[in-house]
């Protein structure tokens, strides 16, 4: 996917210790894409960051601009809160 990362998202990736590698994985092949507030989309996948625990990595994207803009990125252990059952 062709996208740009906002300064806020870059800051949050650094602060939360989430590498660009994992963001690329989620954006290239998300396990789910769900609607978010303000017309944004959450690209999300369940990922083991190498410590044996699964987290949900959520990449919030504004798709109304070209290229698409990554607004923020975060990981959470509260998978059930965000995961949509199909």
Notable features of this structure?
five-stranded mixed β-sheet, 5 strands, alpha+beta, 86 residues, 38% strand
Secondary-structure map:
Blueprint: E1 3-5, H1 7-15, H2 20-28, E2 32-35, E3 41-48, E4 54-62, E5 68-76, H3 79-82
Parallel strand pairs: 1-5
Antiparallel strand pairs: 2-3, 3-4, 4-5
Walk me through the structure.
The structure is a single chain. The radius of gyration is 12 Å and the shape is globular. The protein is of the alpha+beta class and 86 residues long. The model has no long low-confidence stretch (mean pLDDT 95). It is 26% helix and 38% strand. The chain has helices at 7-15, 20-28, 79-82, and strands spanning 3-5, 32-35, 41-48, 54-62, 68-76. The protein has one domain.
Strand line-up of the largest beta sheet: 1-5-4-3-2
Number of helices: 3
Kindly, what is the distance between the CA atoms of the first and last residues, rounded to a whole number of angstroms? 24 Å
Calculate Rg over CA atoms: 12 Å
Fraction of residues in helix: 25-40%
Mean pLDDT: 95
Number of domains: 1
Strand residues, percent:
35-45%
Q: Profile the largest sheet.
A: 5 strands, mixed
The low-confidence runs, each spanning 5 or more residues with pLDDT under 50, are: none
Short structural summary:
This protein is an alpha+beta fold and about 90 residues long.
